[in-house]
Amino acid sequence: MICLDNDLGGGSYLRGKYGDGIDVAKYTAEKKLHTDTLIIVHTCNTVGGDNIIAALANTHKNVSRIPHPYLVEILAKVGKPGLREV
68: domain range? Predict the structure, then answer.
């Protein structure tokens, strides 16, 4: 499983030091990496989430969107008991 957020440490309007979730999504799609892996987009940034999903649309078919506030709760229910929000 890969979990992607749009804003990776840069805040809502700043790019993270190493890029953002969209950069990871574009690289993963370009290189066709992990095409059978579940990818969860958990950003609260609606436009950013849409962009991530669009970047993966042609190469990855197992992409889901879960609003970040619900991510830990949902994953705990599907058998990931050690997860906690940090």
Answer: 2-77
